Amino acid sequence: MFQTLRDSNTSVFQVSEFILMGFPGIHSWQHWLSLPLALLYLLALSANIFILIVINQEATLHQPMYYFLGILAVVDMGLATTIVPKILAILLFSAKAISLPECFAQMYVIHCFVGMESGIFACMAIDRYVAICRPLRYPSIISETFVVKTTVFMTLRNTLTTIPIPVLAAQRYYCAQNQIEHCLCSNLGVTSLSCDDRTINSIYQLFLAWIIMGSDLGLIILSYILILHSVLKLNSVEATSKALSTCTSHLILILFFYTIVVVMSITHGAVMTVPIIPVLLNMLHSVIPPALNPMVYALKNKELRQGLYKVLKLDINRN
Questions:
Q1: 16/262 Cα distance (integer angstroms)
Q2: Phi, psi of 207 (to 5 degrees)
Q3: Is residue 98 within 8 Å of 71, Cβ to Cβ?
């Protein structure tokens, strides 16, 4: 329900719900996107569940590297499930209305999961650095205790630092309109509807993006610079190739994840002549990585691939 600003001598009404309009410029045929989106969502869920089953059943995969991969799978499923069912409801059933508390809750959970994914990528980069550059100390540094401690730290970091996002958004006054040209409750998309100053919201969004996720990215870049420096000193081409191959899948996922994040930040801050671009990128960032991550690891990681063959009871002698 669209609500306009109602000024009188006595009161100004606040909106009671938001309307998620979906994809700007293609409202008349956006329902056709429901099929590929549903297929991607099912692929993401099934692939990540299968990865968790393989890691659980294969004793050779009970290592910190695969524990982090399992945590990433849980985070990916959580992120996709927070977003996709509502988008499908919008596309298929025109269930566009969302209450303010529900919208702010979705906003909070999305930021938590995205921050958690960034943190897990940083932990995985540290794991690869120690494995390649400090192999003799790897068992003592990267232990199960390390995995538990870093996971708890990342969980607390993201759940606590994200709280101000919905709190600040809820403090804004929404009196002019309630139609959001988006398919989910993004912080900047929602607060752009407020009738009062939203500078603090934009500042804190930048703080999270550049300080929290920026520190993760900085740690990842530093880890891989040290890895590259160490690997280039190896005399054996075969040893160099083997060391780099263990990082390939991780690097592919990191490049995809942070490239989309950077592009989304730029497009949100710029005046877009094609407004569907940031909305589409936001959706793809929530669906593609959960579907892509397990497949990239399964294809690029030999131990995980062998574990998949064993669970599927396939002949692995060819490998």
A1: 33
A2: -60, -50
A3: no
> Nearest 5°: phi and psi at 15?
-70, 150
Along the 319 residues of the chain, how does pLDDT read in single tens digits? Answer: 333 333 433 345 578 899 999 888 888 888 899 999 999 999 999 999 999 999 999 998 999 999 999 999 999 999 999 999 999 999 999 999 999 999 999 999 999 999 999 999 999 999 999 998 999 999 999 999 999 999 999 999 999 999 999 999 999 999 878 999 889 998 888 998 998 888 999 899 888 888 888 999 999 999 999 998 888 887 777 767 777 776 777 788 888 888 877 777 666 655 555 677 778 888 888 888 888 888 887 777 888 888 888 888 765 554 4
Assessment of whether the complete model's pTM goes beyond 0.85:
yes
Q: Alpha-carbon distance 87 to 95, whole Å?
A: 9
Contact assessment for residue 234 and residue 240, using Cβ atoms and an 8 Å cutoff: yes
Find, among 98, 77, 99, the residue nearest to 89 by Cα: 98
Residues 218 and 211: their CA atoms lie apart, in Å, by: 10
Tokens of 228: 């590259």
Which tokens hold the place of 128? 């690869």
Contact between 165 and 208 under an 8 Å Cβ cutoff? The reply is yes
